[in-house]
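Follow-up to my post from last week.
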Amino acid sequence: MSLLKLDNCTIRFGGLTAVDSFDAEIGNHELVGLIGPNGAGKTTVFNIVTGVYDPTEGDVLFNDESIVKYKPYEVTHKGIARTFQNIRLCPSLTVKDNVRISYNNSCKSRLFSSVIHLGGYHAEEKQIDTDINEMLEMFDLHVDADEYAKNLPYGDQRKLEIVRALATKPKLLLLDEPAAGMNPSEKKDLMKLIQKVKDKFNISILLVEHDMNVVMGICERIYVLDYGKKIAEGKPEEIQKNPKVIEAYLGTGA
Amino acid sequence: MKNTKILFLISVALIFVVNLFSSSINSYYYQIIIYCGINIVLATSLNLINGYTGQFSLGHAGFMAIGAYVSAALSAYFAPNLLAVLGDGTIGRAIWFIGVLLIGGAGAAIVGVIVGVPSLRLKGDYLAITTLGFSEIIRVVIQNLDFIGASQGFRGIYVYDNGVKSLEMVPELSSMKYIFYEVPKFTDFFWTFLIVAVIIFGITNLMRSTYGRGFIAVKDDEIVAEAMGINTTRFKVTAFIIGAFFAGVAGGLYAHFLQYINPEDFNFLRSVEIVAMVILGGMGSTFGVVLAAIILTVLPELLRDIQQYRMIIYALLLIIMMILRPQGLFGIKLHKKKKIAENQEPDKKIE
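User reply:
Got it. Predicted complex:
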């Protein structure tokens, strides 16, 4: 059974068809890559899955339930979390609080009990605090827990985005170019980290990435998009040899 | 963390004790102190909307007007009934006052929902203009409602023995006995600062909680907040309702202190004044906003001696302040957003 299924998804912005009848499937505990040249529609696919856009045609099924009509926060409640291509951390919150906002939906203390500290407020806050510290420690971010997120080094900001997404307790994690702007050694660390996240949290990951070393290194299957159309899918070795993919990236031989 | 409740009780006790000595305070100073309290309630409640949640509202005077008129009208029109039921004792008056304040606040909150749900779809300047428009509508409506004095203002009602209720003396009934029920002077140091304590502790507690961090997340980045499972619309409307409620309560305090309200008390300038307190104090800093509310209430009084130059100095101070400390007295200075981020293609479309 597939965890996420994109069924013939098409989205048009005016005359432009950004994604054209895209079919894809992600199974449980699978690491799938989505690649393609600039402007191929990769981030648009993310935005369709996370409910930012409704597809013009087609359907998105998550655990066999259509999630097309859900709003982004409802999609998150269903168990899909994402990171962003350009880092989007909350600048006026600390590292810890950036993770804390992911607990906002699941915490039982709502407005009233948060104001007058009723019921299990203190116990719950303590529990959340412990959870956050554990998560941060796992990713070596605990030293800077009380630092403003904007003051972290670039690589750590990327990591924090992943931690924050994981804190929503997803079943599927969408990573949008996590290696962008990293140096080779940081990229290596990132690859290990993604593997670790997948195994430790037992989740599926959909990865959009430009860096071929990263994609080929960790993905189990890869989808290739070009001008919104799927031009190939398969194992990394197959994709590397696929003439259509080579043409899309390098152009036809002169 | 747990001692906030104790701290709250201590401050309430302190307010109660200080209140015992309030009669010895010069009435001019007393008035300024009460205005400080009312302005703190207004500014901190607006800070929840503008500062913490990042939704720029310019209509706070409108909500204040609703609270003032609803509570004052109730107090005057139902004075005979309330006196009959609750009596004129301390407890009776307390129940009466709390009742009308809550109803006034609730009235403002209901209008807050009606205004908030459609207009919170807008952002920034557009939201500011919409809320400004709504608060002007409220003022103009009040100006045309005769039973609360229209543009004459409202100070109470005359109740004649034959049951006729009128805002002014009726010449035809000059021979008949009447009682004038004015808006009672309930607002004193204790009530004003009790509400100040409630809102300061309430907002501080709220912003420390995991739930409350959601408001700040909405301000920082709505797309991220949504992606992390926060229903941003709900948070924005919640902030708007709480803000409107306390603006209404502040209006009730104001009406029951001055005993006379006029639609012009709640015009555009009043809204701007409250916004100035929030910005001067630092968006999203309760302490700073409280301080700014006090400064901007006391300052015009201190400058009273120099008469016509008063407003010039007031304005100059604001200008200098904004140049030297644009983030406000206690606001957090944030880096300007990088332009590069906006030029990157894909996520831009989400907006």
